[in-house]
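---------- Forwarded message ----------

FYI, see the Fibronectin type-III domain-containing protein record below. Original note from H. follows.
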Amino acid sequence: MIRNIIWLSILVLLAGCGGDDGPPPAPQGAQLVFPEENSECTTGTEINQNTTQITFRWMASNNTDSYTLTVVNLETNVPQNISTASTSASLSISKGTPFAWSVTSRNSTSDQVASSPTWLFYNAGAQTTYAPFPAQLERPASGATVQKDLANEVVLEWSGADVDGDIASFEVFFSESNPPITSVGIANATTMALPVGVESGTVYYWRVVTTDSEGNTSISSVFDFKVL
């Protein structure tokens, strides 16, 4: 009887030692440091007359053992990616060009990832004034299926920024063709939303042209969505 009690106690202890500790901790998003948001980046190593090497920096994030830096040329929408265990990485990028950059945090023991905010900057070139950053389309997300409101409208939302801080207007192009060619409204510098009329079962395309006070313009990417 005593022997059975001892064996039962051992089994309970073993079961306790092998208990479920829960899922591994998920990584957290990194805080970006440099290049600064909506800035002109004048620090870098010149590679040639068209290219400089920029060192991107961010803060270490919790539960993270590697990072993926993503830098997107906003004129071509072509990304560059580099993975590192460090909190900095260098890439060669075009001068006088707008870029977006972000960092993805990863943990080898977790299948979850975390993304930082996305910051925009211009890599300095010969120009003394810069066109606005291409507007960042936000809602509806590209490829989304959305519900129209009672007025048979959907609200288009975007964000805009400019190194010189002199955005004058946003012009919205919206149609059933790609690229969209129909101008449906011009918003001032502080308005970044516009309602548009839609019909159920239709796919629409939209983009935004940003203009500054000196007449410089930039064109966003094209987003599409379907209306239920």
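H. also flagged this: The chain has a mean pLDDT of 92.
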